[in-house]
């Protein structure tokens, strides 16, 4: 699996459509302070489903939309599209190429797309579960992240290790199954109540 390119429109400092190619090997992005290097990393985090505006250095999610500059009006929408070469099927899907997109409008309307078809956030997060590259993973280390990991509580550090080790997916399946069992038990209890009332 390889990151091929990213297209950014209206996200943070990228008012104009910007296409960045990653030709393989190692890519370095250099530029003066405040030129938008971290915004590129954040756009990748965002399109993979980041839900916390705080993790993107904002207070509300619409803060990621270009807010204007001295010579430009603000925009009404941010859109990011990530293209991945998945010909080795590292991500468990039949697609050789994966195109993920996320759009957000100022009124809060937001949508996700997988290979140009609208999908749910869950479809995106499920895709990356236990690959080590999904939402909240450590494949993107932001400024201050290392310090935060060292200072985190043991349980939080444990969940990082579980995510990397591939245990997290099974924990999520267990939680879902447990909820279904609880709901079914409630339903059975209700049926038993009705039967005893009828007898
Ligand atoms: P450094 O090297 O100092 O870490 P950087 O190259 O990583 O800097 P970023 O932090 O990515 O730079 O970009 C910061 C710039 O992005 C600031 O100029 C800020 O005003 C701009 N910016 C952030 N959010 C928005 C937004 N919603 N609209 C317009 N500009 C924004």
From TrEMBL:
Family according to the record: Belongs to the SMC family.
Record function comment: Required for chromosome condensation and partitioning.
Species this chain originates from: Lentilactobacillus parakefiri
Residues that hold ATP according to the record: 32-39
Protein's UniProt name: Chromosome partition protein Smc
Compartments where located: Cytoplasm
Subunit structure: Homodimer.
Domain observations: Contains large globular domains required for ATP hydrolysis at each terminus and a third globular domain forming a flexible hinge near the middle of the molecule. These domains are separated by coiled-coil structures.
Coiled-coil ranges from the UniProt annotation: 174-199
Shown part of the complete sequence: 1 to 199 of 1183
